[in-house]
Design goal:
By secondary structure, this protein is of the alpha/beta class. It has one domain: Nucleotidyltransferase, domain 5 (2-Layer Sandwich), CATH 3.30.420. The protein contains 9 helices and 5 strands, in the order H-H-E-E-E-H-H-H-H-E-H-E-H-H. It has helices at residues 2-7, 16-23, 66-76, 83-91, 115-130, 137-162, 178-187, 198-201, 205-219; strands at residues 34-39, 44-51, 54-60, 167-171, 192-194. It has a 5-stranded mixed beta sheet, sandwiched between helices. Helix 3 runs parallel beside helix 5 (115-130). The chain starts with a helix and ends in a 16-residue tail after the last helix.
Amino acid sequence: TTFSFAHNIPLLGVNHMVGHIYSANIEHEMTFPLMAMLVSGGHTELVYMKSHMHFEVLGETLDDAVGEAYDKVGRMLGLPYPGGPLIDKLAHLGKDTYHLPRPMLDPNGYDFSFSGLKSAVNNVIYHANRKGETIDINDMCASFQASVLDVLVTKIEKAAKDYKVKQILIAGGVAANKGLRERLFTTIKDVEIIIPSMAYCTDNAAMIGAAAYYTFKEKGALKNYILGGQSSLDY
């Protein structure tokens, strides 16, 4: 705020998740209408966009975000934090041998839930320990990731068809997941998919700059140079 006032330059408030959406616009052209899926440690959302800076949240997690579930399962398996990237890596070395649920695959809804899946993993580990059995970490990672990807890809594919969008956009830290990228491009053939490069999936200044451009075009700058930090902003 002080810097903006002192140099007489515009001051903008940029929504962090809007920044993640526009991270895809750094390298790709956004084509509307589109369906965005935000997947990170704090968010799991399906967002319909009919044009720039117009957002309709169709579904969101009712408990754990997908990235949060990855990290918690990683901790259960004794993996270092953050667990997501390592689970993705180990999943490619294992097989989907553990029977885990695919939560919230309601054909009529767009919301997500990952706490039950997390609990299911914990139960398998608990009962294996009681029996003196060893968990195959690679297979557990593969099983957990298969369940997550089934849910994410089913939801985004359904939403894209229901809203007849021209493009699917994936953003957020979990968009760096190689398994997710592979599954999306293998499963969905009739709609263009855009995903930021790995460097732009996690928090970065470029995404805020990209979002700031459209924020300024849509809303202009703040008039009074007053901007307080907010933990949550509406789209």
